[in-house]
Amino acid sequence: MSDNQLVELVNSIVKVISWYSQSNSKDGDLLTTAKQKLLGYSFTFSSAVGEALDTYNRAYAHRKAETARLILEYASSGDSQFKASMKAEIEVKDMRIIESGYESIYRRLKGQQDTINNTISSMMQDIKRLETEFKKTGN
Hints:
Elements: H1 3-22, H2 28-76, H3 81-91, H4 93-137
């Protein structure tokens, strides 16, 4: 998913969640429509979360492999295990910074996905409540 597509998707999700959070709608049809939109967006958004996790995991694995390679290199040239580890960690510092950026993106998207899921759950409860009220009033 491109950055532009992700921005458009997030903007669409924000519109639905904003409407819901500011609404005290007693219209079950509107709530159902909003829930359906959010479910569709959620499915697409989960792909972005998966891509972010994949990117983060690949950066992590690359840094760990490079750290291990450097430790072996330093240890085989006479450094103690501790000194080799410290030198390797210093050398991969920039990789760790990049990795932390990917981790931050993943965690932000995952948090947004959790918000979407919580909103959908809340909408479902509101729809159920409206159905119950409708049945009680006999309309």
